[in-house]
Amino acid sequence: MDLLSAAYGATSDEDDGELPSSLPVPVAPGAASFAPPPPKRPRWEYQPYLPPPQSFPQPPPPATAPPLASPASGRYVSKRERALLAASQAPVDSASLLPPQTTAVVDSSVGSVTDSNLRADILHSLRCQPKPRSSKSLPSKLSVSLKGHTKAINCVDWSPTHAHLLTSAGMDHTVHVWNVWDKRNSTARVLKHHTAAVKDVRWSPHGLSLLSGGLDCSLQLVDVVEGKVTKVFKEDQAVEVIKFNPSNPNLFLSGGYKGSLRLWDIRSGVVTKEFHRSLGTILDIEFSADGKQFISSTDTTRSNISENTIIVWDVLRQVPLSNQGLNIGIQHIT
């Protein structure tokens, strides 16, 4: 007991300012003796990391900020920074504000689409169609050679409103407009608005405009005078053939490689009707005179159904009509 009393009764060396161990500590009678609580440990607080001033600068607002400077060599440049830098250095022109494929490329060596350079006798014959049993007619010996396409020609079409103009579409991705009887230059326009072979081209009833379609899965309406694409109609198949409805010039029909037949509204640019049947590639289509029916011919090399060769369709009901008699007539012809 004496050893324990001596141990616990001794004063610690760390108790600064207390009485020496030889003197007793006075305690009030009846008061409880206790040691003061140790000081609390300071709470750890999260300090967010602040980048140094020389860190990557944030791109300024594009409306008022000058172009970004070129990044320093050796520093990593993110894709976003590279895109912003390229956009700030790229020249801005009016064509970039327009949707893609809004301007056809016109060859610089083009002639005129007017009839001012035609021979007088041909011009008179074209403007004044001779009456039945009239002795006036086109010259009996008249020929012209039109050269310009570099590959096979797929289609030709005379203008119904300008009798001196002819258009052609070729495998060389171009559409040519010919001023056939012009004495100076018969090549009026060379349009290069398609990216693949052009399979068909038709004169639009809406002024001097052409509608063409091809293997780039698009139909494009071109203003011949201005040489600009005014509308683009996207397809999911290579376009093989086009026809305008004779009773409604705002509607045209397209047929393609996958066998789809679609009736388009040229004003809104949307498909108004589709004609479904398991067909091969559409080779040709033709409307009836009143535009209420049309006939289509297809390639049957991928099908064993021979009656799908030629079909007469009802435009309003979007159904094929009976073609039994038509097939019999074709068999007799062949």
TrEMBL record:
It holds the Pfam family eIF2A. Residues 24-34 have a biased composition (Low complexity). Keywords: Repeat, WD repeat. Residues 49-69 have a biased composition (Pro residues). Residues 1-73 are annotated as: Disordered. WD repeats lie at residues 146-180, 191-232, 232-274. InterPro entries: TIF_beta_prop-like (IPR013979), WD40/YVTN_repeat-like_dom_sf (IPR015943), WD40_repeat_CS (IPR019775), WD40_repeat_dom_sf (IPR036322), WD40_rpt (IPR001680), WD_repeat_protein (IPR053053). The keyword Ion transport does not apply. The keyword Lipid metabolism does not apply. Residues 188-314 form the Translation initiation factor beta propellor-like domain. It comes from the Eukaryota. PANTHER family: TRANSDUCIN/WD40 REPEAT-LIKE SUPERFAMILY PROTEIN, WD REPEAT-CONTAINING PROTEIN 25. This is Translation initiation factor beta propellor-like domain-containing protein. It comes from Urochloa decumbens. The lineage of its organism: Eukaryota, Viridiplantae, Streptophyta, Embryophyta, Tracheophyta.
